[in-house]
Description:
The complex is a heterodimer. By secondary structure, chain A is an all-beta fold. Chain A has strands at about 5, 10-15, 20-25, 30-35, 45-50, 55-60, 60-65, 70-75, 85-90, 100, 105-110. In chain A, strands 2, 4, 5, 9, 10 and 11 form a six-stranded mixed sheet that branches. Chain A has a five-stranded antiparallel sheet with strand order 1-3-8-7-6, with no helix packed on it. The termini of chain B are far apart. Classes of the chains: A mainly beta, B mainly beta.
Amino acid sequence: xxxxxxSPQFLSIQEGENLTVYCNSSSVFSSLQWYRQEPGEGPVLLxxxxxxxxxxxxxxxxxxxxDARKDSSLHITAAQPGDTGLYLCAAPAETSGSRLTFGEGxxxxxxx
Amino acid sequence: GAVVSQHPSWVICKSGTSVKIECxxxxxxxxxxxxxxxxxxxxxxxxxxxxxxxxxxxxQGVEKDKFLINHxxxxxxxxxxxxxxxEDSSFYICSASSFLNEQFFGxxxxxxxx
Lengths: 112, 114
């Protein structure tokens, strides 16, 4: 069974600090996605990484896909209160490429 | 990105009644849609996979007679919670899959059963 382990589960930091969220698995994935979800809304796709070792930047967010395509990280520089939300990593399920396996999520709170 | 809508955004109903939630892909055709359930501060739990024109595939532990799914067109899937009870209260989210297998999520529906 594929499992995506996210850490930390909860993170509360001050505005301006940096943080990293990790998404790890023992399985190899063809791709991996990161979503952010705000309370009362659906998840919004931030990025899809496909190639091992790939690094993608989205303003202050940097996403990395591990060389072996088993893990990924999300780094936020100079966090702002607007970054507050639930961050989810997801990857295609083994049994069906269109189904996604989700990590448990990281609840980030950035205090002003 | 692709737009997926859900209706209603929230609903309050009495125990024993049925509630229908609609999920629409507004600017693309989705052969596959997914229905998730989410509890506060937790990740999404897949309930079922809905394919246009065929029966939905339910995840283990999800009662197909309680959560009726219909996917009559490439842009519309519906989830009906039948004979709802307070334990069915939750945040229900749908998503639609693109040809790249990326999923685009609806804004969710908050169901409260009294």
